[in-house]
Fold:
Amino acid sequence: MFYIAVQGKMNNHIVTLTTDWGNADNYTAIFKAHLYREYQHINIVDVTHEVKKNTIQNAAFLVKTMYHYFPEKTIHVIDVNFLSPYNEPKYRETLKKGQSSDLLNFTHYLAFCYDEHYFLCENNGIISLLCNIDAITEIVKILPCETFEHFYTFKAIPYWVKAVASLAKENPLSSIGEKYDLQHIERLRMPVAITPDGQKDKIIFHSQYIDSYGNIITNLHKDFFNKIADGRTTFDFYCTQMGTRKKRKISMEYNNDSEERLIFLFGHSQYLEISARYVPFAKMLRTEFLNLEFTITFSPKTEENT
Structure:
């Protein structure tokens, strides 16, 4: 998978790459070479090439918590080779009949404008994890460039190179593709942080990303936490692997003076991060998988602590 960003000025356009290509092969160098040949007035920033294969939720998390740090009119390209179990039979049946995969919406390559930024990605569900689809202001379908047809196993080049170069030259989005219907965007459902019915002091939430330090970033946003906490500063934390840990608090940083083994804080992503001293929290739970369930429970508010 990869992600690209381009600043909207004539000179020194920023292009960032976030991919699952790895660092052991020459895929990244080949892509950069073709992009530079199309337009040299760019500065390429390698965010990461180590996104775990086929994990569009990881890619979406990285992009949605990073893109706003770049200038408006930046271009973000996400290229994730992912096929959902629901769509896989349709894909195989289409190929079996000798029909073009372009008949299937989830194989389309799209470019769209959202929150004053440009994004390029496959229509495989990642858009629904990345942004509010209804807030997309313009979207087009990109067709492969015939010049690069021989790169049939490296589709990032025929689909993205010309498109990125064109946007870097400040051409409009409509110039790189044909208008696309928002109704054709693939949608995936992921768990969200909730308060169960009748239990206003409890939050159930899940892991959504594990960073390279083994910290678990959850889907509990700071705003939702503060709303439910309503001024309360301590809570009980529960997960199946560890049981209940009572009287936890939110820390401001990893290196605090507390001797508690678990650290809870809201990092740059504004989502709750859970860390452990001396050992990666994910390793402590003996997991590398997402969608772990956690619970936070606050003591009921009384007139005395209101």
